[in-house]
Every structure is written in C-alpha cells, then in structure tokens.
Design brief:
23% helix, eight-stranded mixed β-sheet, globular, 5 helices
Length: 216
C-alpha cells in the first residue's frame, strides 16, 4: 500500500476557475519552466485531462495547511486571512477559495496516455500529494481504456523515479538534453498494458490511498 497522505486532499478535473492557481502552482514547482503551460487552451482540448489536488476542507485538520497557517509559508503578514503571498511568491489563492496544492496534466495520444506535467507546491512536497494525484490519474487512464501511460522525468530526479516505478513505470529510453534550463537528459518511463491483470493488481495494491476523487 502507498504511504497514506499526511494532508487531506480531493482530486478533481481542472476548471476555468482554477486557472490563476494552477499557473501559480506550476511557477512555484518549476520556476525555470519556459514556455509555461497554456492551461486555458488545455481546457478546450478534448484529448487533455488535467487534474488538480485541492485541500479537502471537510477534514478537521485541513485548516492548518492553508497558506496563511502552514508553517513553511509563514511571513510577517501570515495573520492576514486574505494573504496570498509567501516568501515573495504569489500563490494565486485568496481566502474563500479551495486551495490547490498539486496539478497533473495528461494527453490522450492515439489511445495512449502521456503525462505532460505533475507539479506540487514546493512547501507541500513529501506529504503524499504527488502520489495521490498520480494514483487517480492512472485510474482515469484505466477508465478511458488508455493502453499504457508514458512520461519524462529528469535523470537526476531519483525520488520521482522511485514513485513512478512503484506504480509500474519502467525506463524505456532517454531524451538527450530534453530540459532547456540546464540541458539535462530526460528518462522516458512507461507502464505495461494498463488493462492487463498485472497492472490492475498494481492499482489494487494501492487502493487504500486516502485521497478522494470528485468528477466535478
């Protein structure tokens, strides 16, 4: 079973109301990314699936993870309930909104899934958010009968590679100089056939992941 997320989140499809926050999440996670993702355009693509992981405020412990209370975000203005700035970085969030912590983008390419981004706010990493959103993405792939799922990951990012291997991704190649910020290679990783008995068992092994999925 996966490590249980230590932060309560709900996974749901991205909507227009999320554009400000998801752009801020990507900038926070990948400050050197260029060009940035055109999220508004992705919403219009029938072949794109973008998911967000938002703080599940129905859970008692959720309030302490809001930006104006979560310790790594504290600033001299942390007492302001509308504060949307932490360490001089814009969160895109304002009080009263659901707080988005992570995003995942998936393209349907000829009945195969391609994960184009998986981003978690820097100060919310190692809390199970990335694993939760990946798990629900793979369940969506299964429901859409995508034959396998592929992604690129930095050759130096061993932690991410470990997570992907846990969910049945295996290295199949390298893209030389793939990352434009420093010319680093990307490892190409892909799953086996997602409707195989072996892959279904991988997902069953992780079915106790506590993050919830909402279709809305």
């Amino acid at each position: 079973m996966p490590n249980q997320p230590s932060i309560p989140v709900t996974i749901r499809p991205m909507g227009e109301k999320d554009l400000e926050q998801v752009s801020a999440v990507e900038k926070d996670a990948f400050p050197d990314l260029f060009p940035s993702t055109a999220f508004a355009k992705e919403l219009k693509h029938g072949s794109s699936v973008f998911l967000v992981a938002e703080l599940d405020e129905s859970k008692r412990e959720a309030s302490r993870f809001l930006p104006n209370r979560w310790a790594p975000y504290k600033t001299k203005d942390c007492g302001n309930p509308n504060n949307n700035v932490y360490r001089n970085k814009y969160t895109g969030w304002v009080s009263g909104q659901r707080f988005i912590i992570g995003i995942l983008g998936l393209w349907n390419m000829a009945n195969e899934g391609h994960i184009v981004t998986l981003a978690v706010r820097r100060y919310y990493r190692r809390l199970g958010v990335g694993e939760t959103i990946l798990y629900h993405c793979l369940k969506v792939c299964l429901e859409k009968s995508l034959l396998n799922v592929t992604l690129e990951v930095r050759s130096s990012n061993k932690e991410a590679q470990f997570l992907y291997r846990k969910y049945g991704f295996n290295p199949v190649g390298v893209r030389k100089g793939y990352y434009t910020d420093n010319g680093e290679d990307a490892m190409i990783m892909t799953t086996a056939n997602t409707d195989s008995c072996e892959y279904l068992q991988i997902l069953r092994n992780h079915r106790n992941n506590t993050g919830q999925y909402s279709p809305k």
